[in-house]
Amino acid sequence: MLRNNGSTADSNGGGELTHAPGRILLARALRDFGDGFVAILLPIYLIELGHTALEIGVIATSALLGSALLTLLVGVVGARRDRRSLLLAASLVMVASGVAYAAADDYAVLLVVAFVGTINPSAGSASIFVPLEHTVLSHAVAPRARTRAFALYSLVGALAGAIGSLAAATPAWLATFGVERLGALKVMFLAYAALGAMGAVVYRGLRPQPSGADRVRAPLGVSRGIVFKLAALFSIDAFAGGFVVQSLLALWLFERFDLSLEVASVIFFWTGVFAALSFPAAAWLASRIGLVNTMVFTHIPASLCLLGAAFAPTLETAIALLICRAVLGQMDVPARSSYVMAVVTPVERPAAASVTAVPRSLAAAMSPVLAGALFAAGLQTWPLLLCGALKIANDLLLLAAFRKLRPPEE
Questions:
Q1: Which CATH number is 6-209+220-402 given?
Q2: HEC profile for the chain?
Q3: 3-state secondary structure at position 390
Q4: CB under 8 Å to 104, separation ≥6 — which residues?
Q5: Please, which pLDDT band fits residue 212 given cuts at 50, 70 and 90?
Q6: CA neighbor of 119 nearest in space, from 143, 98, 149, 92
Q7: What is the pLDDT of residue 17?
């Protein structure tokens, strides 16, 4: 499945060989494991430091906004530097982010680190790593294997994130040995930094891309209109998703059902597992009904589940609906990644990855602070309602705009 497509990898991908997919998958696993526990522990840590729900929302917005700008910077300089160097640099930023959060207590410092670092409140693919990894992966596999490769990429990330969610209970376990709660939370951020260092070791094994053609900036050409339209639609989806990034969804569960950290970590573990299991199904479904249909007709039922969870009378009902949402709501991820890489020319892929990622991150950065304000005003249900309604509207727009534009393999 993850075999090398010679013409693509050699002439357009800058020389990534068959070893590249395995390293990308391993690095993704390490990073998402860290994101899995950080997304849950971040609000707990900030509350422990004495910060309010609104301040937590501002931190989440700052992190997503900073990620967007860093991704834009990668798009600007990426054409003149090989992707291995950029991935190594991003790993070092991850190390610095974890160390800084473990060391700092001042809110202003935490806010700045969230902006310039890699602390991820969404435990997902809102990261400067992702466009670079997408480009490496799409150049390293054959076109017909692309969707399956992205499904495996998403599967590995989701499973790692789910296990990371389970690891969010580590501070409670450390407390049984007499470790003070705040100190235990700081240890977890140091663990996050260690995972960044391990990722750097993995990326170091990638081969640099010496091709002069690959160092020339790859602007958007014939696919410009397609990419801009996709970026706009993906931005609406990301803005909606920002209302329920994992940190804020955890906060909703804490406030609505008075959950313990241990129970919350188990819930997010299982939602992550079920989401991961949906990725191979997404590749299978896309091969039969197409990538666009897979994105739309799995996403709408997921949004309906989220709307139902907002009014769930019991914790059990809410969990069941959130698990259903997890199963259906992430099936668009490998389909979306594969679709973007398929409908542009190979030379446009790095630019397309950045152009579709940056507006998503910018849009996602706007809504957590709004959700935090809604939480602070006692309107804890509204973020879920806004997310579900906006996502359904966006899915209908996506279907109308792209149902006739099929990738070559379809």
A1: 1.20.1250.20
A2: CCCCCHHHHHHCCCCCCCHHHHHHHHHHHHHHHHHHHHHHHHHHHHHHCCCCHHHHHHHHHHHHHHHHHHHHHHHHHHHHCCHHHHHHHHHHHHHHHHHHHHHCCCHHHHHHHHHHCCCCCCCCCCCCHHHHHHHHHHHHCCHHHHHHHHHHHHHHHHHHHHHHHHHHHHHHHHHCCCCCHHHHHHHHHHHHHHHHHHHHHHHHCCCCCCCHHHHCCCCCCCCHHHHHHHHHHHHHHHHHHHHHCHHHHHHHHHHHHCCCHHHHHHHHHHHHHHHHHHHHHHHHHHHHHCHHHHHHHHHHHHHHHHHHHHCCCCHHHHHHHHHHHHHHHCCHHHHHHHHHHHCCCHHHHHHHHHHHHHHHHHHHHHHHHHHHHHHHCCCCCHHHHHHHHHHHHHHHHHHHHHCCCCCCCC
A3: helix
A4: 110, 113
A5: very low
A6: 98
A7: 43
Domain boundaries, the chain: 6-209+220-402
Question: Structure tokens of 341?
Answer: 């890489």
CA distance 402 to 410: 13
Q: Which residue has the tokens 């690095």?
A: 27
Instruction: Please give the structure tokens belonging to residue 136.
Output: 């490496």
DSSP state of 313: S
pTM for this model (two decimals): 0.74
125: CB partners within 8 A, 6+ apart: 157, 333
SS3 of residue 113 by DSSP: helix
Please give the pLDDT value at position 122.
66
Centre a 10 Å sphere on the Cβ of residue 54 and count the other Cβ atoms it contains. 16
Write the single-letter amino acid at 174. L
**Amino acid (1-letter code) at residue 255:** E
Give the separation between CA 166 and CA 33, rounded to whole angstroms: 10
| Residues 252 and 376 sit within 8 Å (Cβ to Cβ) | no
Two structure tokens written together for 315: 């914790």
Are the beta carbons of 206 and 20 closer than 8 angstroms?
Answer: yes
Task: Quote the CA–CA distance of 88 and 204 in Å, as a whole number.
Answer: 7
- 275 neighbors 151 (Cβ within 8 angstroms): no
Q: Do 270 and 316 meet the contact criterion of CB atoms below 8 Å apart?
A: no
Q: The dihedral of CA 96, 99, 101, 103: what is its sign? A: negative
pLDDT digits (tens, 9 = 90+) for 330-358: 888 889 989 998 898 877 777 787 788 77
Q: pLDDT for 282-310, tens place per residue?
A: 989 998 899 999 999 999 999 999 999 99
